Amino acid sequence: MSILLKNCNIVNFDKTINGDIFIEGDKISQVGKLDIKMAEVIDCSGKIVVPGLIDMHVHFRDPGLEYKEDIETGSKAAVAGGVTTCLPMANTKPVNDNSYITTYMIDKAKKVGLIDIYPVGAITKGLDGNELAEIGEMRSAGAIAFSDDGKPVMNSEVMRRAAEYIKGLDGIILSHSEDKDLAGKGVINDGKISTITGLKGIPAEAEEIIIARDILISKLTGAHFHFCHVSTKGSVDLIRYGKSLGLNITAEAAPHHFSLTEDELLSYDTNFKMNPPLRTREDVEAIKNAIKDGTIDCIATDHAPHHRDEKFVEFDLAAFGIIGLQTLVPLTLELVRQNIFDINHFVKVTSYNPSRILKLNDRGEIAPGKLADLAIIDMDKEYIFDENLNRSKSSNTPFLNKKLKGINCITIKSGKIVYQL
Amino acid sequence: MNEKEILNRYELDNIIVRLSFQIVEKLKDDTDYAIIGIKRRGAILADRIANAIFKFKNVKPKVGYLDITLYRDDLTEISDFPKLLGTDISFDVRGKTIVLIDDVIFTGRTVRAAIDAILDFGRPKKIIFVSLVDRGHREFPIQPDFVGKYVPTNIEEKINVKLMEIDNIDSVVIEKRG
Amino acid sequence: MSLSRKDLTGLIDVSKDEILTILETAEKFKEINQREIKKVPTLKGKTIVNLFFEPSTRTRTSFEIAGKRLSADTINFTASASSTTKGETLIDTVKNIESMGVDMFVVRHYYSGSVKFIAENTRAHVINAGDGTNEHPTQSLLDLFTIKEKKGRLEGLNVAIIGDITHSRVARSNAWAMKKLGINLKLYGPNTMIPKDYEPFGCTVCSSIDEAVEDCDVIMMLRIQLERQGIALLPSLKEYSKLFGLNKDRLKKAKKDAIIMHPGPINRGVELPSLLADCEQSVILDQVENGVAVRMAVIYLLTIQNANQKLEA
Lengths: 421, 178, 313
Description:
The structure holds 3 protein chains of 3 kinds.
Chain A (H helix, E strand, L loop, with lengths): L1 E10 L4 E9 L2 E6 L7 E4 L4 E4 L1 E6 L12 H10 L2 E6 L10 H14 L3 E2 L17 H7 L3 E2 L9 H13 L3 E4 L4 H4 L4 E2 L2 H6 L3 E2 L1 H18 L3 E3 L5 H12 L4 E5 L1 H5 L21 H13 L4 E2 L8 H4 L16 H10 L5 H15 L16 E12 L16 E12 L2 E5 L1
Parallel strand pairs in A: 1-4, 1-5, 6-7, 7-8, 9-10, 10-13, 11-12, 13-14, 14-15
Antiparallel strand pairs in A: 1-2, 2-3, 5-16, 16-17, 17-18
Helix pairs in contact in A: 2-3, 4-7, 7-8
Chain B lengths: L1 E6 L1 H19 L5 E6 L2 H17 L4 E5 L30 E9 L3 H11 L6 E9 L11 E5 L7 E5 L1 H4 L3 E6 L2
Parallel strand pairs in B: 2-3, 2-4, 4-5, 5-6
Antiparallel strand pairs in B: 1-8, 7-8
Helix pairs in contact in B: 1-2
Chain C lengths: L15 H18 L13 E6 L4 H13 L3 E6 L3 H4 L4 H9 L5 E6 L4 H6 L5 E7 L5 H15 L6 E5 L6 H13 L2 E5 L15 E2 L3 H5 L4 E4 L5 E2 L2 E2 L4 H8 L3 H4 L7 E3 L12 H4 L6 H29 L1
Parallel strand pairs in C: 1-2, 1-3, 3-4, 5-6, 5-8, 6-7, 8-11
Antiparallel strand pairs in C: 9-10
Helix pairs in contact in C: 1-6, 1-12, 2-12, 6-7, 6-12
């Protein structure tokens, strides 16, 4: 089967060209002014074509918590958002701390057949922070990255040994940076809004302390640490410093952390409750600049589906997190509209950089020989993101029923059209 | 809207005096009595009647002021927010004859509320009721003991009692609507 | 002269005029509380449920008396964790009781914001009787009522609130209200009990108790708990009393006629010694007395106003 994309604005991380894309099988075979017949033709005029987005941080809740999301609905939400590769986190039930779960997840994703997933293996058994999980077996089964995400590895000795071990397997550590004791029972950022609302605060330092520690453990071990959902100015400064030392560290930020501030919490709306919490305007500006200057390498959604019953409760009892796969494109395009960076940088932080961090060199670019993973995006379309558009099993996002600008229209995964608006 | 005066200040003064005599005559030897005016204008009339009684009896009767807002039977239906005026009854009503005074009697509901309110202060010996104007249209079986002036009215009409203390003029007018 | 709101969840969004209306109305209700028959028929047939998820005998009793004196039927529903452990959510509980024809909920809850959450999800009126460390609006209103009664005014007074500011809903409600009323508020307490970012309070945070008490018309001491959610905030109560408690010498720094307040219950000998708790300047029992009138006023103003809005609609 072959597809010809005509009249494309082909956006790569380094340049934009006008032309056509010819897809044969699961790969891109030609790019340029093409005159090919005998193929399905899609006219892409007025839209941009970008390499399929790679989301390094999602929660698909499968196995065990399928009432929130499963690999099928998660995949559907992903392709609707233009995302063709996902790294689902290990905090499933049971935890993905062994190769059987890893294999189950990969097999199920293959059966669904919409996206590629690379399950994140747990660092410690049961995410208990003490005993190393069977990292090697999971690596062999297809896991690239390892994390206890949702929880930190509080014991520095355990983290050191994990780092050494994972480095030997050519894996990556995704650091959920949170000092559990300092964060305590906090539910929002510690600052002006926690003072006003009486909600318990989580200081920025709870994140920064562990980022500082893991930068040092990277220095100690040489392991690749990737910092998840960086949310504070202090974290950005630490990562910038770590990178200046030439350490093997990378970082991601979530769209909500550059789109929203803690001020939203004055409403006590649980859809604004996330971990790390929404921070101050100053933090938001620091995150945006860090994405621009490369201190933060990529954008990952931390797509965290929760059932309505887990959000429609007292604020302190509500689950942390929001869904994000389908708001990734419009919220990140907002930074392009704000002239923080250009559209090529958009591709860099949503696709190219993640592909390089994960060493998935078969994707992240639109070029002959690369996987035909593509998203065709209408940058200017304004719409209400409502339940009709939402493909996730859950609806926990403050952007539901809000006006957004920019939408993914068609997703092609390995040469197959997997989503059409 | 047009207004027609039905009592001027002189007529009003005369009525106050007449009502005072009627009250004293009715009470006869009963000296253990007190006057309670219904806020706002009934309270002012209560003071005036008490002063009038003092002029010819040389004894000033005790006067109390009653806000019946909390006793209204239409409290949850009225359109204007009822401002609480406060009640001030500093004497014991138990065993006393209470002379209840209001400016206008209309449906009788205000008087009903006032009687209920007085009973919450204790059990008086009896209550007599005096109204400056009776405009008819009773909805409750309540009749005043003494009336200053009977004014037959249409249901749409309004009686406005204006008193110097709050309205800067003494006058009673009938207001025809439409 | 109106209170055009369905609920009273906090004082943060209540205007100066509304606060003054409540205080003025409460003055009228105080007279009823001094009668022999302390009851008016105003809210006959209305049902008020005191929905308490956190035990509090005194606040609940005060609300119960207030409701009863207005002739409302008051029912106490002390919800333990039991309903939530059975899998019922907070809103399930509220909706269930609401279905029985409830006109008003008076809610005490251990989580900040949950009273607002309930208010947004019920047709009934809701009064916040304390939610977590957020607000306790009627406590602040009765404090203000008492201050006005004793001092004859509110504007321009110097008030110090001393104790655990971070975890005090009384301090929060008072801070929002006092700012609007032109009261000069000073806060003081151990640094473990002062929020990191106290700028939103819009008042002075003092660095010593002498500074806090100096030239004050009102000194409000807050109840102290050694720990919060298992985190120790103080070495000992003994040390607290020495460093942060009120005593006779410290009181001398205040104005001669300064009044001493406390939301209760007092830890005698900790926040202040019995000598001061029971002295002439202490108005602690006046606060309790005024609480009933203030709560009657709030119940009355919310219930009556809404009935009128319904009619207009």
